[in-house]
Amino acid sequence: MKVRVKFRKNGAMKFIGHLDIMRYFQKAMRRAHIPIAFSGGYSPHMIMSFAHPLGVGLTSDGEYFDIELTEPIAGIEAIIRLNAAMVEGMEVISFVEIPSDKRSAGMSIVAAADYRCILKKGELPDHYIELAKSFYAQPEIMIMKKTKRSEKMVDIHPMIYSFEADEQSFVMQVATGSVQNLKPSLVMEAFLNYINVSSEEMSFYYHRIEVYAETDQGLKTLEALGTEIK
Amino acid sequence: MRKTALSDDILMEIEKPARYIGNEVNSVVKDKAEIDIRFAMCFPDVYEIGMSHLGIQILYDMFNRRGDTWCERVYSPWTDLDKIMREQNIPLFALESQDPLKEFDFIGITIQYEMCYTNILQILDLGQIPLLASERGDDIPIIIGGGSCVYNPEPLADFFDLFYIGEGETVYDQLLDVYKANKKAGGTRHDFLEAAAAIEGIYVPAFYDIAYHEDGTIAKFKPNNQHAQEKIKKQMVRDVSDTFYPDKPVVPFIKATQDRVVLEIQRGCIRGCRFCQAGMIYRPTRERNLEMLKEYAYKMLESTGHEEISLSSLSSSDYSQLKELVTFLMKEFSGKGINISLPSLRIDAFSLDVMQKVQDIRRSSLTFAPEAGTQRLRDVINKGLTEEIILDGAGQAFEGGWTKVKLYFMLGLPSETEEDMKGIAHLSEAVARRYYEIPKEQRDGKCQITASSSFFVPKPFTPFQWVTMHSSEEYIEKAIIVNQEFKAQHNRKSLRYNWHEADVTVLEGVFARGDRRVGAVLLEAYHMGCLFDAWSEEFDNDKWLKAFENTGVDIAFYNLRERSLDELLPWDFIDIGVTKQFLQREYENAMAEKVTPNCRSRCAGCGMGVFEGGVCIESPS
Fold it and tell me: Nearest Cα to B163, choosing from B153, B172, B155?
């Protein structure tokens, strides 16, 4: 049985990198006695695959990984057991069964994510809500993209699916995943550039809210592709 | 939400911020308001090394069982953070509460190797605590040292208020009770130190005066305070099955060196190798009960979620119920995706059979520690391993499919000749030859024999505590002789040889057998910027040599001078149970190339019998 686990990562846990979070969950699975399946071979490892890795320094309310079970376990029971094995800052919030077809399993399905960017340093201009509107209303948003070999101007507007401001922060939905990927910090960089503020004067905390997959019915949260395990 | 002592910006800037945030599974957080004693337990090296140390895990668990005490952990900030903390004047903090060290009652520092001594000063310095014990006032934490290096604490005497000599499980409770009572009664730091000095095993360096002869050797070592004891008696747990052991060890987020459950199966070693300090100071050998070990294996795997369990001891093959234990572990855990990692066992049919089941033969290698290249020198050091045993074990392994063998040696052992040095190459060649005796069609290509040598450092409380060392140049010459002999061997393409750093060996020698006067060099070297000396990329020998020069301390006095058997040694005030007469006798046996049988085959009368524990009271099987 394939299962999708959704969790939150907050507080000081944002300093734990992706690979260490994987190790953390492998150990948590054992502490919580989740009947997880192992790969074959000489050194078996847990079958566990994470959705788009979260960078160090970011918090999140919508992180995902998929596992395989050797026997079913009720979702609510699994959540209780896993949370008893968590540390402060980590919380498991859903545990659902997913179909094993390629369109709902595997983490290559990730297409978009929501982020909240909260003011860390500096002061926002009074009319920041209007500025956010006019920034997003531009026909194109050009940024300098640096690669190892070259620098070129690219339009990131098509990868920003929404952008608005509220309560001293900015909420956006951007392209995420293996096909197209846009970091929220690049969007904020473009915004600061738009309002003529340098990155030394103003900076932000980045918080992931949710991760989505592309489906025939449009974007759906990864969790919505699963069903409750009773 | 948890606070962090370091700002987000700093944590984002440094390497591996997980080293400094605490919050790990099984770390203990208590309410400060309900605590009388705050204890910061420190391993003076980087987090990944310090977190792998079993002793701290044992004490951390033991202290936190006390309702009135909160024990937290501290490790050395790596050089990147060290620089930032100095620039921004950020005080060093403990991981659990993230509170500055200077707010604690105790800072306990475990001292495991000489090359971490500058890191001890770093901890105190960044903790904003005066480096010299003599400069600490009543509001400064008590600095206490423990661990295997405190069997000669003298090089560190100026920096510590107390040393705890021996195994931590015995008198710490008493010490903490005394501290609490003194605090409640409004006593001073001095009052506490006097009360502590009266506890068995506790050494207060400030309460002793030392006088020197004209030739620099010690003339007198006497208490100057009526509470101080003439002799400090090593502490030892008599029953290691009925004592403290952590059932919920802390699980690091980042990969520590020891990322597994560690089951200490016994303390001490029956073998009596004459170069080995652990083999003397942890006498007598005491085994933990099989049932206790089974219970802890379950509990610790359950509470940590680790995917590996490892056995720990000085010589696991001597654990009398090893077969039962290993069979149990394989039966219970192998099917559950849990690896069983075996320490270097003596190679025989049983261990090969077990290794075949738990390891990937093609990738794993077999390890032997002959320590010396010839039988003559192995008799001198009382290492019972013969060439026949090695070739027989290697032969069985080769026939079982192994192709890689590691051999460990020491250079610079007492009485060593050129023939002994060359013997390292000859023994390695013999192992390779044994491999090629297997018919071509039955073996898997070439074999790979890797020999490594370290340079011998004489340690206090060993039969070799009197012997002379060599200069750095002489050590290199020895290694070159061995290396050239390797190149002359028939199977040289299957042999590899590498040797350890010689400069570090010289410093280890000075600090292992130094007296109080070498503390000045340490302080000078630290002020000159020496830190993380155990890390080859950080070690700066030129700075160290300059520190010796600046302080007028002579390396030759400590390393190249012949000590007479009746010299008053800096550590003679410690009573480890093993008598000086025994060590002298063993030294004489060594020079006569005479082997002493292990404790289980015949008691050698080392003096430990008075403790009435472990192998000393085992009924002969």
Answer: B153
Chain A nearest-CA residue for B261: A27
Answer yes or no: is B378 within a domain.
Answer: no
| Among B3, B20, B25, the residue to mutate for chain A (most A Cβ within 10 A) | B25
Residue A87 and residue B24: Cβ atoms within 8 Å? yes
What is the per-residue DSSP string for A160-200? Answer: EEEEEEETTEEEEEEE-SSS----HHHHHHHHHHHTT--TT
Query: Same structural domain for residues B305 and B346?
Result: yes
CA closest to B17 among chain A residues: A15
Element (H, E) at A6: strand A2-9
Residue B73, in any domain of the structure = yes
The answer to whether ipTM exceeds 0.85 is: yes
Residue B335 sits at the chain A interface (C-beta within 8 Å) = no
C-alpha distances out from residue A86 to A79, B4, B217, B470, Å: 10, 19, 58, 54
Residues of chain A with pLDDT > 70: what percent?
98
Same domain, B229 and B264: no
* Domain of residue B181, residue span: 8-233
Residue in A20, A45, A57 nearest the CB of B12: A57
- A-B contacts at Cβ under 8 angstroms: 69
Residue B208 to residues B159, B211, B359, B521: CA-CA distances in angstroms? 14, 10, 53, 21
* B57 and B166 co-located in one domain: yes
Q: Cβ–Cβ of A31/B254 closer than 8 Å?
A: no
CATH code (residue B191) = 3.40.50.280
Amino acid at B201: G
Does the distance separating the beta carbons of A43 and B23 come in below 8 Å?
A: no
- Residue B606 belongs to a domain with what CATH number? 3.30.750.210
pTM of the full predicted structure?
0.95
Torsion region of B417: left, alpha or beta (phi above 0 gives left; psi -120 to 50 gives alpha): beta
Examine residue B147 and state whether it is found in any structural domain, yes or no.
Answer: yes
Residue A44 pLDDT grade (very low, low, confident, very high; cuts 50, 70, 90): confident
Residue of B2, B51, B260, B357 to mutate, interface with A, max A Cβ within 10 Å: B2
Chain B residue whose CA is closest to A89: B1
Are the Cβ atoms of B25 and A31 closer than 8 angstroms? yes
Q: What is the pLDDT of residues A86-131, one digit of tens each?
A: 999 999 999 999 998 777 766 788 999 999 999 999 999 999 999 9
Say which residue the tokens 């770093």 belong to.
B122
Question: For chain A, which domains are there?
Answer: 2-108 (3.30.70.580), 110-215 (3.30.2350.10)
